[in-house]
Amino acid sequence: MVIDKDLFKEVIENFIPMHQMLGVKLVDIGKGYAKIMIPFRPELVGDPRRMSLHGGIISLALDSVGGAAAMTTMLSPDDSLSTIDIRIDYLRPGKPQDFFAEGELARSGNRIIVTRMIAYHDKSEPIAEGKGVYNVKRKID
User: Fold this and answer.
1) How far apart are CA 117 and CA 65, in angstroms?
2) Pairing of strands 125-137, 80-90
3) Which of 2, 19, 48, 134 is most solvent-facing, going by the fewest CB within 10 Å?
């Protein structure tokens, strides 16, 4: 399957209301891989004393990018995907600046897809790492 980058960009940036509200930008997409950027806004701060990102925003970014990587395995517009489980390890506070999240397939089966994700400002110092498990329902002709 050829990845239609423009279609993925439209879905990720404009079709999902939460992504629209946060200004999520698709940076890169390929078979089994996705990278997004979330621009910083003061509303994303979780601890105003340290000015660190809210953990929920980081979790959302990881779930979104894991789901995007999983979406690259879809065979039909009628296929569907939903999160079964997600595990996040918060490694350090997120700074009050734009941040990135990357996701890649670890396993893709007929019904279950597993992804590994990372969130960072600078890739050498990740903010968080995660593992996502997604249920996929494929339309079979």
Assistant:
1) 7
2) antiparallel
3) 2
Out of 14-18, 64-68, 77-81, 124-128, least confident range: 77-81
- In sequence order, the 6+-apart residues with CB closer than 8 A to the CB of 48 are none
**For residue 38, what are the domain limits?**
5-137
On the question of pLDDT at 2 being above 80, the answer is no
Global confidence as pTM? 0.94
User: Domain with 117 in it: what CATH number?
Assistant: 3.10.129.10
Whole-number Cα distances in Å, 128 to 12, 38, 41, 62, 93: 21, 14, 19, 9, 9
Look-up: residue for tokens 């809210």? 54
Total domains in the chain come to 1
pLDDT in tens, 19-37: 999 999 999 999 999 999 9
Extended beta strands in the chain, E state:
25-30, 33-38, 45-47, 52-53, 80-90, 99-108, 112-122, 125-137
